Amino acid sequence: IMRFATVILACAVCALPTFALATPGASITQSAAAPATPSASAAASDQNTLVKISTIEGKAANDEFTRNVQVLQNERQEIVKLNTATNEAAAGSDARKALQTQLDAAVKKLETDNQTMAKSYGYSILRNYVRVPEVSQIFVVLTDEEIAKQPAPTDGTAPSKTLKVCSLNDAQANQSFQDTVQKLQQMRQQAITAKDALEKATDASDKAYKQGQFDLIMKQLNEANTEATKAYAFNLNRQYVMSIEKSTLYVQASPE
Fold first, then answer.
1. Which residues, at least 6 apart from 220, have a Cβ–Cβ distance to it below 8 Å?
2. Given a cut of 50, is residue 3 above it in pLDDT?
């Protein structure tokens, strides 16, 4: 069985692969599905360990790369499941032989797809990577009511379900946006935790203290949300899509 390293695709809301909140609320999703990832700043804290291997230009190419990475990771997960099932099956049984055949085929397919990714992007599922968006567009997902109010396209197609609200034109802007969104999500989770503690409090003095904590957190959250709205037209109460138009892929250098 192939051994797989952890794949780090750090990007603004790499997820922006998906930056979903722990509870219903704002989330940001890449225009093509991708696994959730840590922030670029956290993943790339030691720049000396990263080596640039490719730049992906254009929305279509970035969407395709994201989809291809997801395919590889899905194939990897399937191999893990098949390997477990094969090992659990009785030795010498027909069931084990059938599972082994499936496992061998899955490993071969992953190896082939991984070789294709290596040729196209210098990417291998056996290495660790950081993907940094450099140019991206942020779209708000429209409600049904908002879609109904959109002018009908002249070409007869259906009205768009999203509306562009922000352009991020360099890596610093993308990182700043990601940091802002993650900070809001962390503050929202703190508010949820504080609210839960407040509702569970029974002692009057303890309840008053927890009410003060909750009110302070909500004040800070609302202020931060207002600033995000001014800077990026981003609001915790809406859903968003991030469309990457240019990104750079870095590999984590080995000790050798």
1. 187
2. no
